[in-house]
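Regression test attached.
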Amino acid sequence: MMITKDFSKKRLIILALLLAGLSVIPHVSGLSTITLFSRIFIMAIYAMSYDILRGYMGFINLGHAMFFGTGAYAVGVMFRNFGSTLPVFLIAIVFSVVFSSIAAFIMGKIVFRSGGKGPVVVVAGAMTTLALGEIVRHTAERWRSVTMGADGLSYRIPEIFSNRILFYYYALIFMIVMTLVLRQFVLSPTGRVLMSIRENEQRAEFLGYDTQKYKLIGLQVAGIASGLSGVMFGVLNRFANTELLSVQQTLNALLMTLVGGTGTLYGAIIGSGFVNIVQSQLLNFRSVHPVFERWLLFFGAMYVIVVIFMPRGFVGLYYTLTDKQKAKVQKSAVGKS
Amino acid sequence: MGEILIETKDLGISFGGHKAVNKVSIKLEKDKLTTILGPNGAGKTTLFNLISGLLEPTEGQVFFKGTEITSLSPLQRIKMGMGRSFQLTNVFGALTVFENVRLSLQSKAEIGYKIFTDHRRFSELNEKTERILEEVLLFERKDFLASELSHGEQRKLELGMVMALEPEILLLDEPTAGMAIEEVPVMIEIMKNIQKSGTTIILIEHKIDMVKSLSDKLIIIVNGKFLTEGDPETVSKDPEVLKAYLGGGVLDELAAEG
């Protein structure tokens, strides 16, 4: 593994401490905190899959929730109809992966059609993804016999997942494994080409890359990751409704990556932590004043503040601060000599 | 005459009635550094765009080593061995200098759509990248972001990226445009080295002083039309060329020298 080579000793120690801390949490905190953290881990991967598109590929997908929502529905519908067992769970995973990669392929074929470049095409592409996402959401809403429509679908989950503490560890492992996988993807030759496409697609084409094909692969990888996080979320939530397929759900991913820092991968974890904790805190305040139930209102404000004051998110802020410190150290070193 | 790499036959394109390139028929030979010369707005870059496939011609044909490529995509033309640079610098700004060249080599190496192998494992590419960076005098800058380089350095980087593709023929669109004067000789030296390594260079320029000693052949384009061609000495004394440029001002130096 390259990981040991990439990280300094100091960083590895910090990571180990962080991991140790995270594995202690379920033993010292209440059920709601445990659930909140499980949610953070799962949503982090959902946000990360969005970051692959926005941060690494430079593609704005407003229909991204379709993969996530379908993953959640896959477990819900299957548990309800075929029983809440582990094999059914595995089938739901396979279904989600197959669906995500096919749906991403179709979406990509429509949106990445060659011909024309520039801002107009970017907006048109984003609008197309929005429409595709809405088609899936509408289908789920109308297909009442399977999805229960707008009422939502509740279901029982397999025995081994019903222990919240154990599931916390599953979610943590899920996050770690998926982060490693996506990190490897970003570091792969294909991931590098996606970054060059983000920078300048025409130039990438003139280097001899079939940019359309690369973007398709990127969208499929992001779609599959998003779908898998949806599967995990379905198990955590024990309930699926069409909101999981909505544009709002996509914007959640956008907000999380924005807060954490786009194009950084790890920013998604920080963003997910921040957004989910703030969201649950706001909901706690609902007894103080009903306005806090409208947490979206606060998120709108947060969105604007982040865009204006820390366009590179928390990770960007960290880099800016450490860079400044480095510059300071260098300056003082120069001053001494 | 040596082997013909690129040939155009009555090539033309019009934008809303204006003929930017008008029935141009030229032949570009192997191992001959040819410069397409003409004043600003003569249609030189448009001609490059037609040859490299960025624009589709409204008339005429393009051939590469005898095969018609008029309707092929830029990508297909690159795979056949055609490389080009752009007039405006065109590097991947947020990526490192090293990564810019490495990506170019990766394309040439055709390692396929690997999605789970670390890109740093392809040590051969890394070594080659360093060699190319040394050739274009950017080795010390390899860990900088491309956007942090000076304009002249970015042009060198771009040249390095095209070199990495090892094209048979290389179309360079005003490679010294906007460069500091002291950097120009360095650039010319780099181009000479590329030519020596077996890649045929085709240049676009509007400054005669730079290309006169460098080029083996000049092709003059005026108002989208082919005017004349030949070795630099003869062409620069051609009365028709002088006449065409009178008032244009760009080649006044040419007249003075002639």
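Expected vs. actual: identical. Residues 247-251 of chain B have pLDDT under 50 and may be disordered.
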